[in-house]
Amino acid sequence: MPTQMPIRSFAAVPATASYSPASTRGPFEAMNLMASQMTFGPNEEIFGESEPAEYVYKVISGAVRTYKILSDGRRQIGAFYLPGDIFGLEVGKTHQLSAEAIGKAAVRVLRRSAVVSLAERDCGAARELWTFTARELRRVQQHMLLLAKSAQQRVASFLLEMSERLAAADAVELPMSRQDIADYLGLTIETVSRTMSQFVSEAAIGLPKSRRIVLRNRVALRQLNA
Amino acid sequence: MPTQMPIRSFAAVPATASYSPASTRGPFEAMNLMASQMTFGPNEEIFGESEPAEYVYKVISGAVRTYKILSDGRRQIGAFYLPGDIFGLEVGKTHQLSAEAIGKAAVRVLRRSAVVSLAERDCGAARELWTFTARELRRVQQHMLLLAKSAQQRVASFLLEMSERLAAADAVELPMSRQDIADYLGLTIETVSRTMSQFVSEAAIGLPKSRRIVLRNRVALRQLNA
DNA sequence: CGGCGGCTTGATCGGTCTCAAGTACGGTGG
DNA sequence: CCACCGTACTTGAGACCGATCAAGCCGCCG
């Protein structure tokens, strides 16, 4: 079994989440103003696959993973969401993947119905929803292409992606475990570990602690995408 | 080199494609009424990756594939579009993948600008665009999950998908070559061929001609998705 | 009837998985 | 402060699946 069990796993239900229709800007703006905040512990479920998609979430701190359990028991992680990222927005009534906090995480929550009903009145807001979904589409397309590559290429792409998303001067503090990375890349934990060790020996990266990555040679990593 | 070269490859530019803003229904309805029609020969390019996305397309007859060439020369097919399917719609200015006719294909064409400007006035139309993109998103997510499976599972899923999309009574006439299938599934042509032969020997399918598939045991194919 | 492209089948190779130890690290209790 | 423990991670050896390389086969069109 590749996954840890959640510590607690109740469906997320925020205390309050009202939305003013007179909002000046797009559908997600309100998240910074109103929208109730919630916190989740490590591995705690935020929502489950095929649950009604009642809320839209924005990561405030920590990190979130979405995933599906494949029929053979393996877990495929669909995405990692980092501070500032929005997730859980669905067009249909139910979620397509489950979501869990990776470590301790804080998220802001908005009622989906508020977002959708705003879009029905405000075409600008509607366009923003469309744009958001299109961005997700592109992300998933990229992820799909990733899964067609070799292990080296996948790990290199992952490191570059993470460095772009949360880099502080070439050093990246990964919020997720090797198992999470493996399940995101469609590899085993051993292959991820071995590949990183290889990058260290090639001086492409430094690995002072297992979750701290120093990108020493971005060019080499990028060329692996060959 | 896994791919054939296109016979002709000019960018698609329809002769005329005006759009009435007073259209009664959603943004794609007009495709059936007005919208110019074009035909493409086998392997002819419809649009290229990173070309400006000026048009939206609807397949009338034949089949279309979208794809990317990976940096190592392999081709990853993103989707097959069959009669009735819409493709080529982008939120941004440029296409994310290239598109080619597989065999001889006819498509109807609509100016993207017409679709988008309608959505700016009509929130219902905007919602339809959003729904369309969300459906694409789900399709790509499914495709991503496919690539995480074994060869048997991928081929079985592909056959089931095709049978649902163009089945006439358990017999499917595939419009695409083994190479197309392989590039869609992230496998080699040999593995696709071998796997199909295995399914034949297990009596899960019949294969009277190489492109004609008879689904003899859907349950067995579905269970492979284990 | 000949040739060519698309498909199938066979033999071998290699990359990733699997199974199995070993190691580093953070937390807890003495 | 240190000893101990459990978890996460690394490393090694061997198996396995799908890729590669290489023939054949089939059907179609001249």
The coarse silhouette of chain A is elongated
What is the helix content of chain A?
25-40%
Order of helices and strands of chain A: HEEEEEEEEHHHEHHEEH
Provide the β-strand percentage band of chain A.
15-25%
Main β-sheet description of chain A:
4 strands, antiparallel
CA-atom Rg of chain A in angstroms: 18 Å
Q: Outline the low-pLDDT stretches of chain A.
A: 1-13, 15-23
Write the layout of secondary structure elements.
Two copies of one chain form a homodimer.
Chain A: H1 30-33, E1 36-40, E2 45-47, E3 55-61, E4 64-69, E5 75-81, E6 86-87, E7 98-101, E8 105-111, H2 112-121, H3 123-146, H4 151-166, E9 171-173, H5 178-185, H6 189-201, E10 205-209, E11 212-215, H7 218-224
Antiparallel strand pairs in A: 1-8, 2-7, 3-6, 3-8, 4-5, 4-7, 9-11, 10-11
Helix pairs in contact in A: 2-3, 4-7, 5-6
Chain A binds a DNA duplex (30 and 30 nucleotides) through helix 6.
